[in-house]
Amino acid sequence: MEKTKVRQAVPLQPMQVHGGADIHLQPGEDPTPEQVKAPEGGCGPVGSPHWSRLLAGPVAPWREEPTLEQCAARIPEAGAVLDLLEKCPEHQKKGRFPVVVFEGLDATGKTTVTESVKDTLNGVLLRSPPACISQWRTIFDDEPASIKRAFYAAGNYILASEIAEASTQAPVIIDRYWHSTAAYTIATEINGKVQDLPPVHDEVYQWPEDLLKPDLVLLLTVDPEERAHRLQRRGLEKTKEEAELEANCLFRQRYT
Ligand SMILES: Nc1ncnc2c1ncn2[C@@H]1O[C@H](COP(=O)(O)OP(=O)(O)OP(=O)(O)O)[C@@H](O)[C@H]1O
Ligand SMILES: Nc1ccn([C@@H]2O[C@H](COP(=O)(O)O)[C@@H](O)[C@H]2O)c(=O)n1
């Protein structure tokens, strides 16, 4: 068996999954720093999102991309996700049992490790996106980035209500959570160099205040060559992100 490295992950929140102030720009025109800055009361590019705000706007407001709500007429599953989200109580509270998240790139061993830890601890294993919406992933994966990210972000909030309930009964082990959504969003949405990432203390890296927090987050990493072999052995079609990762080593630096 290959060695899988584990290190504690830094909590993250996505760059701009929620909406900002209305900004009207000509095609191709870039927003000024003032336009991008969070307005009073939050809701800017790096504001602290409540889920309704989080899902109310596009990744980059100046691009005028549709939201989950706006695309519900075209994609009935978007309406179904929002209905499920509506039913989840706000500000979920954790039970008395620990909640442990495993994060990592594809094929780093999350499924293998989480199943083993669940068995060892007699725990409950949950995944993001949760089972109740995961059958719709292929639909949203083919949509523009803002809709895709809104789907995964909503999934995390629906998952939070499952975690709240399960953690009253047993330890909860989770395969991906907010960190994945945030990291993939940052990695794919921020263009430019690694040194252009928001600075280390930026609000963008804070956990969303209204999302249930896990007790521990562990990031699994494996040697890139070994990971490539595992992906090859698995023989599944590469995800868009994996293709980008292969083509651009900056992507991996941004993700991790
Ligand atoms: N420690 C290990 N040594 C060797 N092979 C491993 C190890 N852990 C997992 N694998 C193998 O690597 C492949 C990927 O593992 P796994 O499905 O657990 O990863 P994952 O992180 O859940 O992937 P994904 O996110 O893409 O679903 C599987 O074929 C698995 O058998
Ligand atoms: N919380 C999450 C979970 C997943 N994603 C997206 O799914 C892809 C990975 O899914 P696996 O089934 O292979 O684990 C990942 O590339 C993300 O696009 C997410 O954004 N947020």
Structural description of this entry:
By secondary structure, the protein is α/β, with parallel strands linked by helices. It has a single domain, classed as Rossmann fold (3-Layer(aba) Sandwich). 39% of the residues lie in helices and 9% in strands. It has eleven helices and five strands. The chain has a five-stranded mixed sheet with strand order 1-5-2-4-3, with helices on both faces. Helix 3 runs parallel beside helix 7. About 22% of the residues have low confidence. Ligand L45E5XJ5 binds next to helix 7 and helix 8.
Q: Please give the largest β-sheet.
A: 5 strands, mixed
Q: What's the CATH class, please?
A: Alpha Beta
Task: Kindly report the CATH topology.
Answer: Rossmann fold
DSSP helix count?
11
Beta content: 5-15%
Poorly predicted tracts of residues: 8-63
Can you name the CATH architecture?
Answer: 3-Layer(aba) Sandwich
* Nearest-integer average pLDDT: 76
N- and C-termini, Cα separation: 23 Å
Q: What are the bound molecules?
A: adenosine-5'-triphosphate, ligand L45E5XJ5
Largest beta sheet: strand ordering? 1-5-2-4-3
Q: What is the number of domains?
A: 1
| Rg calculated over all Cα atoms | 18 Å
Helix/strand order = EHHHEHEHHHEHEHHH
